[in-house]
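ping. complex inputs:
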Amino acid sequence: MALRRRDFLTAAFRPRELALACTGAVAWTHAVDEAKAAPFSLRPPHAREEPDLLASCIKCGQCVEACPFDTLHLAKVGDEAAIGVPRFDARQEPCHMCEDVPCAASCPTDALEKNLAIEEAQMGLAVLIDQETCLAFQGLRCEVCYRACPMLGKAIRLEFEPQERTGKHAFFLPVVDSDQCTGCGMCEHACILEEAAIRVLPRDLAKGKLGEHYRFGWKEEARISRDFTAPDRAPEIPEWEDSMERVLEQMDDLTGIEEP
Amino acid sequence: MSWLYAHRYLLARRAVVAGMFVLFWLGANAHLGVLTGNLSSSRVLRTVPLSDPFAVLQILATGRSLAATVLVGALIVLVFYAAVGGRVFCGWVCPVGIVGDGASWIRRRFAIRGQFRVARSARFWILALALPVSAVTGVAAFEWLSPIGIVQRELIQGPGLGLVLTVSALVLVDVFVVREGWCGSLCPLGAFYSLLGRLALVRVAFDPKRCDHCGDCAKVCPEPHVIDFNAMAQKGFIESGDCLNCARCLEVCPRDAYQFSLRSNAGAANDLGEGDPHATQSTA
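pong. complex structure:
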C-alpha cells in the first residue's frame, strides 16, 4: 500500500497511468485557464502587471490586513475575479493613498512592489464614462469628483466652456490627466449620481495606443529644434543644363566609359 | 475525565487549528499582530515570516523570482515539518483535515461502505503534475483550485458561498464516493508533506510486546496502511511519511502499545527489548 519510489516511476511508463496523468494535466490546465479568464479588477497600488501579479501573489491577505481602510479584499468564489487575489471596488471603498503604502510593504512575495511613492501608483484610470448623466455636462455646478481627487487640480482639472443654452454661463467640465491619475477611485466613490458617471477602469481598458509609426506634425515641430518656417527668398534651383551635365559625369564615373 | 484523557490529542489538535484561526481572524479583523496572513503565507508578531513551501515551488515553476521574505518563510516551515513530521500539517494545522475527520466519523457512525476506490498514490501524481501545469498556465496551479485555500480565506475574511460549497463537496465526496477521498487520495499538499515526512524526527513508537492485535488503531487511523504490524515491530515505530502523527492510534489503544518518540529513541528502545547491550550504552 505504501508508496515506493520504484512503483511510482515504473507506473509512469505504463500506458494506462500515463494516459490518466495526461488527461488530468489537460483538464487541470483548462480549469486554471478558465479561472484566470475572469474580468479585470482594480488592484492594490504598485501591483505588478496582471500576468505577473496572478503568478506571484500567494493569496495570503497580508495586504488586506495592512490596509487601514476597508478597501482591499481577496476575491472569493462568486466574485467573478481571479480567486484569492486582492482587489477593490472603488464605488464601495476607494484607495486612500496612504503615504507609506502599507499594503505593498506587507507583501511577502513582491507581487506588490515596495518603496515606490504612492503618487506613482497606476491602479487604474478614471474615465468620465457618461456625459449624458454627468451634472457638469448638463451645465450644473457639481465638481464633486474634482474636489474629491487627492491630486487636486492635477489628475482632474476643470475646463471651462461657454454654455449656449443660457448664453451667460459656463460649463465646468472635469477632465482627467492620465499621467497624473493613480486610479485611487476617490472620484468614482464621490460621484453623487446613483450610478457613477466617472469610473476607474484598469488602464489597459481605458487607454488607446497609437501605432509606433504615427507622428503628429505639430508635436514633431516642438521636438525638433530646426526652424521649419518658410524662407523669405525662393530656394535656388540649379539650371537644367548644369544639373544634366553633372548627372552625365557621374554616370561616366560609374561605368568607366570615356567620351570619344 | 477519562473521556478527556482518552481524547487528549484529538482535543489538542482541534485546539491548535481553532487557536490558529482565531489568531488569523483577529489579525485580519482586529489588527492583532500575533499572526497575520493565512496558511499560504503569514508573519508571526509581524516579523517572522512563514510560507507554504509547496505554493512557493509552484510560483517558482511559473518562472517568477520571489522576494527573500517568502523564501525564508518557506525554509522555516520546511525545517519545522521535517522535524515534527510532514503531515503534522494535515493532522494539527489544516482546517480541511477536520472536515475529512468529520466525514470519516459519519462513515463509521452510519457504517457507510466505500463506493469507489482511488489509489492513495493518486495524490503523488497530482503533486508531480502541479509543477508542469503551473509552468504552462503561468500561475500556481493548485493554489487556484485548492479547497484548503478557499476554506481558510473564507474562515479568516468572512464566510461566503465558497466555504459552504467546498465543505459540502468535500463531505459528500468523502462520505459517499471515496473513503478519505480528499485528504487520503487527492490532496497534493498532503502528498508534499508525506514526502517531507520521510525525514521526520518525531514518530509514533510501537511496542510489539504490548500489542494484542485488536486492530482498534487501524479502524481510527486516517491512513490505515501506515499501520503495518510486521514493519512496526521490526523498526519500533511507524515509518511511513503518510503518518499524520495525529495520535488517534495512541489514544484508542487499550494496551498503550503506542507513544510519541524520537525516531532514534524508538529504534533503540526495541533494540533494548531484544537485549542488545550496545544499544543500552548508546541510550544511556
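Chain B touches chain A through 59 residues (CB under 8 Å).
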